[in-house]
Structure formats: structure tokens, C-alpha cells
Amino acid sequence: MKRHLLIIFTLVLLAPAGMAQETTASAPSVAQDFNKSKLDQYFDALEAGDRFMGSVAVSRNGELIYSRSLGFADIAKNKKANASTKYRIGSISKTFTTVLVMKAVEDGKLELDQTIDRYFPAIKNADKITIGYLLYHRSGIHSFTDDPGFLTWNTQAKTEAEMVALITEGGIDFEPNAQSAYSNSNFVLLTFILENCFGKPYPALVDSLIAEPADLHNTYMGGKINTDDHEALSYQYSGKWDLSDETDSSIPLGAGAIVSTPGDLVKFSDALFGGKLISAESLNLMKTIQGNFGMGLIPIPFYEYAGLGHTGGIDGFSSVFSHFANGNISYALTSNGTNFNNNDISVAVLSALFGKEYSIPEFSGFEASEDDLESYEGIYSSPMIPLKITITTEKGKLMAQATGQPAFPLEATARHEFSFPAASVVIEFNPSEKSLILKQGGGQFKFTRE
To answer: Looking at the whole model, is its pTM more than 0.90?
Structure first.
């Protein structure tokens, strides 16, 4: 749900470099035991380094086999997170919304190929845009979260009429079914369609058609965050944990406003892929990929294992869930603050499960001198990337800011070398040449100080 504002790109759960997705038929058997002690040591290291706040859970054959929680649900009140702490799950909400759409189709209330002009006649191409196009992100409807002004009004409550007007005014980015492009607008519109065809509010549909049959006790449509009800606030790291703004839930709705726990998410995953929520035919439609997306699902491969699930992000929250048919494994992570790359955490957990090598992180604690910090300051540009990077110091902390993006703290790892763990960014300075090398995602980009 959130607009990712990091240099170059943001990593979500991906297969390690060079590893391609294969069919489950060719995947080897999953080990029945894994080294829980080493995985605990991995999370102990994150906790000691104050790198991650959140929770993870793993189930095998419908049984919870691992869970761990770190950090705080509310720092000011000193409320620590535990397995019952509830987090906003952002765009994982889209999977829930898709299940509700498939239920409506099964009940004869909707058809995937019906157009949306009956509900939203003012939206351009409404007579060509189908329910299926909304689900597959092939509608062409512009995503309101991509608007430059979104973060100026996202904390203000909106009515259905106001949201439809905002989406209508946003127009279209391409003709229906011409391509795939992620749009939160699609799933906000689906929320209103579901309420219309069922004659019930979206929160009640989540409760009756998903939470109750899947036995989810901590999953529901969120509202104003209440930490006294075991709900977590979210934070951004800038050398310390800063409380994030709170998007009003009336805006993301079925695109990103559901609250849950990792324990509930793996139960939801097991129920969905186990055929307890929708028919096998409906599930197969959800799993069918068109362009980059399934219906409410995206491919999440790990080495030779084919996973399906979804990622999510809203405010300072981030999340992921994935189901692997090989081994009948479901995995979920929810986070309300990170000073680390959550993708690496997911890779570590899955590596433990699937018998792959992974390392326990080490944090150097290297202290850069004031003279060195001053020598790095300036504005850097590169012919390789249409962004400038401004390097400054604030209270003895080195900060970097790319054009049009928020500043983020850099952590010294060696002399002239710094990192931003949350996005796997490494910056190496060469003061004598007045240059820096930015490394991310296997790429290296040279910038020169102006």
C-alpha cells in the first residue's frame, strides 16, 4: 500500500540472486526438522542490534512450528511485542479482498467478466473495465497512492464518495487489459463493489466469510490504532525510532487496511490453499498469473521452491506471507519498524526451513571520525542514474538524501564505508577523488561530488 521512497528500488521477498522459480514437482523434499536454535540466534542478533521490530510465524501441515517476536508495539508506553501483537498488513489485505470477490462469484453475486460501469459510471473506460481486470491490476486506473500529494492527505478520513471522486479524477494510465500496473485504486473500488453486492459492510464480510471459517482471532478491518488492544504503532528509523504518521483506514480499505498477526496469516494461508475458504476452481483462478500478477496473489519463489502470497506496506509497517505447496509450508512476517532489510530476514527463515545456508548477522559498531564525516558532505551526481544524492551530517550522524526522497541515516561499517541496511544499500566514499560508489541489488553506481 505505501509508496516506497528508497534509493533506486526497494527489495521485497525475492529468490536469492541467480535462483529461478521451478515447479513444485521438481522441488526436492523439505527437511522435517530444522535448526531452531540457530534461527533463534539470528533473531537474538537482530534484537541485540535494535534492527527489527515485528514478528514471524511458520506452519507446516497446518501446525505452527516456529514463531518469534521482537521490539515494541508502543515504545512510549514500553509495551513489548508478543505473538498476540496485531499489525497493519497493508497490501496483504488484497488477498483477503480477492477471496471475498471469489465468494461473491461463487454465490452468483458477481461475474469476473462484468464491467464496472454499473457501479462507477463516471470512471473513464468503466464500460470496458471488468472485475477481473481490477483483480489482475490490468484496469489502467491510476493508483491514487502514486499522486505527489497523497502523503499530504492520507491521515484524513475520507467518505466513499470522496474516494471514488479522487480515483475518478486520477484518470487512467493505459487502456484496459493492455498491460499490468499495480494500482491500489482497483481494490478500493472492489471494496465498494463487495459492499454493494453483499449488502453488508466490508469489515463484516471479512469477519463472517474469512475470519470465522479460518478461525482467525486477531484479524479484522483496522481503525484508529489502539495499543491497549494489542495493536502496534509503526516507526521509522533515523538513528532512533520515530513514530510514523497513521494513514486513516477509510482510505486503503480492502487495498490495505486489514490488521492481523503472523500466526493468523499462516492460518489464513493454510485455509486458503487448503480449500477451506473458496472452491478449487476459484483458487486456481487466483493462482493463474497474467502479466506480473495473479488475483490477489504474486509469485514468491525461493531457490527451487515455488511460493505464492503477497507483500504489504503502509506507514512504517511492512509484511509478507507466502505458501509453499512443497512441504505444505506457510510463512508470514509482520513488522512495525526496521533498521534492516526485511527481505534478508525472510530469506533466513526460509533457508532454515528448506535446509539452505545462511549467516547470523554481525554489526560492526565502527565509529567514523568527525573529520571523515565532514569530508563526505556535498551533492553527488552520476550519469548512470537521474538522481542526485546529498550527504550531510546531523548530530554526528551521516545522512543521505536522494532527489525527491526523504533523508535516511547511514551506518559506518568501516573507514569510508557506510550502509543503509533497510534497503541493502552500501556507500563507499573516496574523499581524495571526491566521489562515492553506491551499491545495491548487485549494481554499482559511481557518483562525483559537484
So the answer is: no
